[in-house]
Amino acid sequence: MQLARVVGTVVSTQKSEKLVGLTLLIVEPVDMRTLESTGNPMVAVDAVGAGEGEVVLYVAGSSARLTQRTKDLPVDATVMAIVDYVEMDGGRTFAKS
């Protein structure tokens, strides 16, 4: 699992019928301590109803196809949790407002 921030959405009117009804989010990996960007944004299927600006956990590769919403679908990344807070070294580095 990786920590990321939702930075946008992708709208696609023409897609595989297996993807119809799924929301495609643009997520940008972030550092757990600073929440600063650590990598390139990517597209991930939303399995939990996340929105722009939220900090989320996503999985990539074969793990992306293990949620109820994405089982056996042609996806490579899935948002599978919305983060409420992150605690490290005895303190909170992030708390959802």
Classified in CATH, the superfamily is EutN/Ccml
- Main β-sheet: number of strands, strand sense, barrel status? 5 strands, mixed, barrel
- The number of helical segments is 0
Rounded to an integer in angstroms, the radius of gyration calculated over CA atoms is 14 Å
Structural class: mainly beta
Strand order of the largest sheet: 1-2-3-5-4
Describe the structure.
There is one protein chain. Strand 6 (85-88) and strand 7 (91-95) form a beta hairpin. The chain is 0% helix and 42% strand. A 5-stranded mixed β-barrel has the order 1-2-3-5-4. It has strands at residues 2-10, 24-29, 42-46, 55-60, 77-82, 85-88, 91-95. It has 97 residues and is an all-beta fold. It has a single domain, classed as EutN/Ccml (OB fold (Dihydrolipoamide Acetyltransferase, E2P), Beta Barrel). It contains no helices and 7 strands.
Features:
about 100 residues; mainly beta; OB fold (Dihydrolipoamide Acetyltransferase, E2P); five-stranded mixed beta barrel; 7 strands; elongated
